[in-house]
Amino acid sequence: AYDEESGEWVDYSGYEDNEIKAFLVLFGHEKQPLLNARQLVKAIGWDGRDFMLLDQMDLSKTQIQGRVGENDYNNKISLRVEWIDHVDAEPGQQLRRLDADELKKLNAKFASGLRELGGGPKPKSAPPVAPKPSAPKPPVLEPTATTKMAEAVDKVVAKTEHDKPAAPPIPVTTVEDVSVQEKYGLPAACTQEEAWEACAKHRKDGVSDDDLANIWTQVIGDIGDEEAVGDHWYKVRDGVLELVGK
């Protein structure tokens, strides 16, 4: 385990609870690889082309890095793998820096926008305006493990709501709560693939495959893990749609 305070690796093998599983969504609804898949290729040296080859790889001596975070479910704190990387990656929770090739691709992709951004006339300076007195700010609280799920969902919902056009006001009516299954006409039981397809079909506009994969993983973590889910994939499906369903 990496100690961020000392900047050194600490031997964790002597602890009783020294194993952890990672549940990663590799491909999105449109069958395109997600960032988790690219990290898996980088971490273990898989060519990314053949699942049979992946199954046959001897990884018994392969070392990787895994970023672990706390998961709070039913007042029980457990650890969950949130990110994987190759063994020689820079440890800690710093933002990933793009390499030279990736930066060149960004320059090429947004060339016209960069020209407009850097080549336009500079605005004339406006006369100074006296700043308005600011209201006192509330104290900033450190996020806890119990808020991680809500923060992830809030980010997805906020982005979705920002892109939606303003709708005309509608009369306020009182309706009885309906279940996710009733709302979307879903069966009481489903397979893992059927659960994912339902989530992809009924998600809010603006929720990307990466957003959906993150919420999917969070819901599984809240249940416990994939073993705890068992054959009850409808629980994951309903939990995801309660958060980001249309």
Structure description:
With 246 residues, this protein is of the alpha+beta class. It has helices at residues 35-44, 51-56, 100-109, 111-119, 148-163, 180-184, 192-202, 209-223, 226-229, 233-244, and strands at residues 2-3, 8-9, 64-73, 76-86. The strands form 2 sheets. A two-stranded antiparallel sheet has the order 1-2. The chain has a two-stranded antiparallel ribbon with strand order 3-4. A hairpin with a 2-residue loop joins β3 and β4. α5 (148-163) runs antiparallel to α8, α7 packs parallel to α10 and α8 crosses α10 (233-244). Mean pLDDT is 77; it is low at 172-176.
First-to-last CA distance? 41 Å
**Largest sheet, spatial ordering of strands:** 1-2
Figure out the total of helices: 10
Tell me the fraction of residues in β-strands, as a range.
Answer: 5-15%
Q: Determine the structural class based on helices, strands and strand pairing.
A: alpha+beta
